[in-house]
Fold this sequence. Notes:
Actin, Chain A, domain 4; alpha+beta; Nucleotidyltransferase, domain 5; six-stranded mixed beta sheet; 39% helix; Substrate Binding Domain Of DNAk, Chain A, domain 1
Amino acid sequence: MPTEKVVGIDLGTTNSCVAIVEDGTPVVIPNRGGYKTTPSMVAIAENGKRLVGHIAKRQAITNAENTVYASKRLIGRKWGSAAVRQSLETVPYRIVEGPHDDVRIMLRDQVFSVSEIAAYILQEMKLITEEYLGEEVQKAVVTVPAYFNDAQRQATKDAGRVAGLEVIRIINEPTAAALAYGFGKTMERRVSVYDLGGGTFDISILEIGNGVFEVMSTAGDTFLGGEDFDRRIIDWLVAGFQREHKIDLRKDKMVLQRLKDVAEKAKCELSSVRETEINLPFIISTGRNEALHLQTTLSREKLEELTADLVERTIDICARTLEEAEISKGDLEEVILVGGMTRMPLVQQRVAEFFGLEPCKGVHPDEVVALGAAIQASALTDEKHEILLLDVTPHSLGIMIVGGYFHKLIEQNTTVPTSKSHVFTTVKDNQTSVKILVLQGESDRAEENELLGEFVLNGLRRAPRGEVEIEVTFHISADGIVSVTARDLETGLEQSITVTATSGLTEDELKKMVEANKDYMVEVRSGQEFDRARHSAEKVLDEVESLFPRVSDIISGSDFGQDAVKKARSVIERVRAAIAHKDLAALTEGTEALSRTLNMFRGVVSKTGA
Length: 610
Ligand code: AMP
């Protein structure tokens, strides 16, 4: 019996990528436009339709308020957190408070949880795979930044469920990258994976040897990535415009989206050229109805000056990680670069200087994480596979004890899965219940760490303080998801939680979302059929229109030729009307006619040698 296909999905801040292992080789699956990555963008169009990926990106400027990007920065976050405050100031879409101290996104008049937005992206990746394989896909391994905490991991798992995918394992992005790097190679090596993507930075140190991938240490910042580099450029553009025209461009959401677009484009261009023009004609009009343009030049040097501190922040984290893992730079044999931002020359230069190693060129920074996820997916489903992945927990875990202190049960960088127990006792005479606050973080003070969840163990025997013994056990699964049990050692009474509520969604809400999305899936598929047809039509249209002036010059001399030109015009109009009216049948029929016209045009051009 053929084994069930499990896909590997890199759910990125900026772009997402899906891969599978086919005949023993991991391959990235291109989307229907032929691209190997798909923008992690979701929008609601004016007619209420949900748009995902490239289609969402194409209309982002004209529909800025209803187009979500970089939502991964918000997943699993609390409403009051610094990350949310920062996003509130910078993104054009509306972020609102959810019912469980969580974050929701408002598009038109609908409110979405961040997991739902992620679900739509996962669903798109699922569809891309299903179209490629011609069969349904139900299971996936999804990657997350190594430094994601429990709530963020749980929220990502929830997203899978809403998308109709069982997430059989969550793995860390840098670990996935190392898996892809080490796949099929017989070697023993200590490597470092430097992963700077659109929203997050991660660094991991791994030991690879004979199919065993052991993470020794990991660290990162879940709010440091390409988006921050873009913002520095936007700030610089806004400040320049303000100086020149005394107008604040930030006030207009559409302008903000246009600025974001040009900023990112300029940043990417400056990875290969030393200077780039930034041009935004008619960016804003003055009170006197006069249009103003933004036109300037950005040099690589200036970009480096604007963003040097961001790059240095990543280098500081690298230094800390090596120190914590008690590894000297000389022990490392390879540095693997992952994430689109590692194309920036300054990043490559600083990484090479810091590690004293030329970064490995053999991996594709945009695809390597999805490939690693696919390798892990295949290892989990195929018994013959000889890969063992030993990951670590990125944060310490423990509970709050008397005085507001944090008692760690599991230290950061412990290999998972793992379990650890510790016995605690009551602090008051006749205390009949204890409240267990489950925390994640590194501070000694409980309030400075992340609260994952809380529960109460009731019914304790009345006794003098210190007499009742309560054993608290932490368990971290291979996904990095935490469950905690408290047990009265005398009576065997116990209470436990799996930390789920902190993803911001209750089980009830999730069930409703899964149901609502099921109805939607049908809609998405038929909508996408039209998008595909339009995509093919537009390609033919482009070519016909580009040949039109030449062909019409050549053939208009005869009556027959004039007739052919007239017919060609009418076919073009028919196709355009079918696109405008979203009429799939008319579009299919019109594209066929247009293809015949194109063949005729090509024939005319090649015969006359024009
Ligand atoms: P990822 O999350 O790995 O897809 O990385 C996306 C980030 O990489 C975005 O911020 C992109 O703007 C950035 N990026 C992609 N290509 C380049 C490039 N050539 N130079 C600089 N940054 C890039």
